[in-house]
Amino acid sequence: MVTKKVMRVVEEVRFFPRYSHHVATSDHAGDILKRIYMIPEERVHIILNGVDEAIFRPELSLGNELKHELGIPQNGSLILGMSGRLVKDKGHPLIFQALKEIFMENNIFQQSVVLVIAGDGPWGARYKDLGANILVLGPLGRADLAKFYNAIDIFVHPTLRGQGLDQTPLEAILSGKPVMTTRVASLTGSVIVGPELGYTFSPTVESLKKTLYRVWKDGKVVLEKKGKAARQRGLKLFTATKMTAAYERLFLCMSKEAYCKYP
Domains in the chain, start-ordered, CATH in brackets? Predict the structure, then answer.
């Protein structure tokens, strides 16, 4: 298996230089292109993914609407949220086990926390086994996702994939929510770059449990403050408007090098 991966990298190193320009969607991916694949810096363009800031924005009424539909008290439970594909490489076995252990050892945590999950996949049915305070909504359209993000207090992103930059944490950030994510370079290098923006954890059950307890103890006031800071950073880096402008400049850059600088 290791030999196959090494051979793949060797082949990519030989193949990649044939391209005139390379786009990386995270700072970490850009660093890999320059260091591992030895692409000249001027041919690597870091254009971070962006989401629609007109849809994903703080809107208290949207969150209250969903909480009413789900029967969640407006100012009671701490609400954790997850969205996306409920599969192994997104870290769902990890957080399932962490929650299972916490619920068994701490009744107060179990009674005061609600987990709302938007998405589908093999782990959807498993989550329901953890109790009535785990709500699996299935896949949601963008309008309902806007309600979802506004209803939660923090977005949990336990991904085990280290490459690229997923949309879901960016949607949460633009909605004014802090993110709790696995400590992978693409996320710590571009998204959660400091503790004032959210929380990071190692991809182990024990580390995840400690971080969940910390989030719980910090409470809603601290989470709201982190969410506001995350949104301010998100508006500078992760909007669809900024991403579109960067790609437009890339196309101009292809014809004239003077345009190869990004706002």
Answer: 2-50+240-259 (no CATH), 60-237 (3.40.50.2000)
